[in-house]
Write a structure and sequence with these properties.
CATH class of one domain: Alpha Beta
Strand content: 5-15%
Mean pLDDT: 80
Distance between the termini: 18 Å
Shape: rod-shaped
Low-confidence stretches: 1-9
Helix content: 40-55%
CATH topology of one domain: Alpha-Beta Plaits
Strand order of the largest sheet: 2-3-1-4
CATH architecture of one domain: 2-Layer Sandwich
Oligomer: single chain
Radius of gyration: 26 Å
Number of helices: 5
Structural class: alpha+beta
Length: about 180
C-alpha cells in the first residue's frame, strides 16, 4: 500500500520512518499517530505483503479504475451492437435461409456479452496500469527491512515533536525509528 506524500521538506517538519515486526503493532501505531495529530495524508505504509486499508483502519484510497471499467464496458457493448445490428445491413444476403432471423438472437447475445467483457477487461487493465503510476521515474521509499516481511510507516511530524513521536513509536513496538532519507534504487 502506498500513498503519495509530498517529498518537499517543509520548514519545521521532519520525515520519520518507523519499522515494525508485525501488522498489529503497525496498526496500533497508525492509531497513535492519528491521536497525536498526524493526518492520513501525512502517513505512508510500506509493506512487502498486500495489506488492505481496512486491515490498518485507514480510509480507502480513491481510484478511477471502476469508472474506466464502466466506460470500457459501454464502449465494448457499442462495438458489439455495431457488429451485430449494423454489419448485416452493410453486407445484405439476398436469400433468407430457412426461418433464421436477419439478426439472430443467441449469437447476438454471445457477441454483445463477449465484446462488453473485452472492453471492460482492456479498460480495467489500462486503468490499473495508469493508476499505479507505472513506469514511475520519481524517487520512492525503499526500506531493506520490508523485504524481510516487516512493516514500515513513513510519516511527517513537527521537528520540535520528533522525540515525542520516536518514544511513542518505540513504546508500541517499533524496532527502529529514524529520520527518513530517500534512497534511489
Amino acid at each position: 500500500m502506498a500513498d503519495n506524500i509530498s517529498r518537499e521538506e517543509h520548514s519545521g517538519q521532519v520525515s520519520l520512518l518507523a519499522v515494525f515486526p508485525d501488522l498489529m503493532p503497525a496498526a496500533d501505531a497508525l492509531d497513535q499517530l492519528r491521536a497525536l495529530g498526524i493526518s492520513d495524508d501525512q502517513m505512508n505504509v510500506i509493506s512487502g505483503i498486500p495489506v488492505t486499508e481496512a486491515m490498518l483502519g485507514r480510509p480507502s484510497q480513491w481510484t478511477n479504475v471502476p469508472r474506466l471499467a464502466a466506460g470500457g464496458s459501454i464502449l465494448g457493448f457499442c462495438a458489439g451492437a455495431f457488429l451485430v445490428f449494423v454489419t448485416p445491413y452493410l453486407y445484405p444476403v439476398p436469400i433468407q435461409v430457412g426461418t433464421q432471423a436477419f439478426v439472430p438472437g443467441p449469437p447476438t447475445v454471445v457477441v454483445l456479452f463477449e465484446l462488453t467483457m473485452l472492453g471492460m477487461l482492456l479498460s480495467t487493465f489500462l486503468g490499473v496500469f495508469l493508476d499505479s503510476y507505472f513506469p514511475n521515474y520519481r524517487p520512492m521509499e525503499y526500506v531493506k527491512e520490508v523485504s524481510d516481511g516487516k512493516i514500515a510507516i513513513f510519516f511527517i511530524c513537527p521537528e520540535e515533536s520528533k522525540e515525542k513521536f520516536t518514544k511513542a513509536m518505540t513504546a508500541l513496538g517499533a524496532e527502529k525509528v529514524e529520520v527518513a532519507e530517500v534512497e534511489h534504487l
